[in-house]
Specification:
Elements lengths: L4 H4 L3 H14 L32 H15 L1 H8 L7 H26 L5 H14 L8 H24 L4 H31 L1 H14 L10 H11 L4 H16 L2 H23 L5 H13 L1
Length: about 300
């Protein structure tokens, strides 16, 4: 049982609504239609992969490698989100999400292999190492997991899109744009589920936001030489701290979730608790319970 089990039962009607919206919005597509198969040729002793013949600059190859290996770690993302109730709306969503994410790895890998953009041997060794390690961000509370998935899906969308725009090949740009479009729909699902959770328990969600923003790391941290790759990606303008703040923290956490106002609410709640503890120490009772009732009224 994962920490998400604590969340999905309370939010089941909302999950159902958001899942139905996703199914109505998402478009069916097929990886083979995006891959320029006619460019492909065998890899053998006579025609091995040659970095000099790659149509992609070395720095961009690094970004593509990280993007793909991040997608390859899908089994562990699913494990961290799944719950025991297979018939629940949350389970249906996580299976749908997993199927769509798996398609991303398929289309990116096929494109890179056919176009000889990346060394296929290094790519496969990287996949094996990444999946065997199984390193993914872990959280102790479902609220933190919900905040993280919201921000991470948006970060992944931005990274895929920006990487694609660095490719001169129209087919490559189309692949990365298609994947980024899916990631955006995933982000919207988690974002709106988190928004509902904020309405229900703003205090817990502010705590989760603080934890996730303070410790945020992309899910590719288990990739060999990830820190060095991250510097390359930042220098390319694919993803860096400025993008993280301007395109993720500011529009989602600060503006949409209104963390400043939620933070004031949280501080007020804490002050009330401290004040009431002092009153109880002086023999006065019942104040905190009354304030909690008022707090509940405000939340509704």
């Amino acid at each position: 049982m994962t920490v998400m089990h604590e969340l999905h039962t309370d939010l089941e009607p909302v999950v159902t609504e958001l899942y139905d919206r996703h199914l109505a919005t998402a478009k069916e597509w097929f990886p083979h239609e995006y891959v320029p198969w006619g460019r492909g040729r065998d890899f053998d002793a006579a025609t091995p992969w040659d970095p000099e013949a790659s149509p992609v600059p070395e720095a961009v190859r690094v970004a593509l490698l990280v993007n793909l290996l991040t997608e390859d770690n899908l089994p562990y993302y699913y494990a961290s989100l799944s719950v025991d109730d297979r018939d629940s709306a949350w389970s249906q969503w996580t299976r749908q999400w997993t199927a769509e994410e798996g398609r991303h790895a398929i289309v990116i890998r096929d494109y890179l292999t056919v176009t000889r953009s990346i060394d296929p041997v290094a790519l496969e060794r990287g996949r094996m190492q990444q999946v065997k390690a199984g390193e993914t961000p872990q959280f102790d509370t479902p609220t933190a997991g919900l905040v993280y998935t919201t921000l991470q899906e948006l970060a992944t969308r931005i990274a895929h899109r920006n990487t694609g725009e660095l490719l001169e090949d129209p087919a490559g740009r189309a692949v990365m744009r298609r994947v980024a479009a899916d990631e955006n729909l995933h982000h919207l699902f988690y974002r709106d589920l988190a928004t509902e959770m904020i309405a229900r328990d703003p205090s817990a969600m502010v705590i989760a936001m603080e934890e996730v923003v303070r410790t945020f790391a992309m899910p590719g941290t288990g990739i060999t030489d990830f820190a060095r790759h991250a510097r390359t990606i930042a220098n390319l303008g694919v993803y860096d701290l400025s993008i993280h703040y301007q395109q993720i923290i500011l529009p989602v956490v600060v503006q949409r979730w209104n963390v400043a106002e939620r933070g004031r609410f949280r501080r007020r709640e804490r002050r009330w608790g401290e004040h009431d503890s002092r009153r109880r120490g002086n023999g006065e009772h019942g104040g905190w319970q009354r304030r909690q009732r008022r707090l509940g009224h405000e939340r509704r």
